[in-house]
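so my prof wants the structure for this chain in the tokens format not the other one, which i didnt know existed until like an hour ago. anyway here's the sequence
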Amino acid sequence: MIEESNKKKLLYVEDDQPSLDTVSLLIKKWYNVDTASNAEEALEKVKNNEYAAILMDINLGFGMNGIELTDHIREVPGYKETPVIAVTAFASITEKREIMSHQLTHYISKPFFREDLLKIIDEAINGRENKIYE
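here's what i got, hopefully its the right format
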């Protein structure tokens, strides 16, 4: 296990509490995970914290969607180049292309395996090429 002080900090934005809890539990051994259940909460956390990457649900229920929220996050000082990983149930090739045509850097569709999520987070943080995982 990685020592607490050496873990990178992530933000997971998701309106579904069970999904927030599950993903946080799946990756807490390797990352410190903050969560936000809506756009306003996410923007507040981004303004007050430094995240190595952001996991972004696309359909946030009400208000801004994940694509719009990512556009706002990109305007926050220090977040122009931060990896934003789409974590979404939108899985058709057309939806993938639409999502990736915006300011999100990586994509993984739900449901996924922990190993796939960890791989995409590692690739995003370590600056590897953009990838789409099924």
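also thought this was worth mentioning. Residues 5 and 73 are 25 Å apart (CA to CA).
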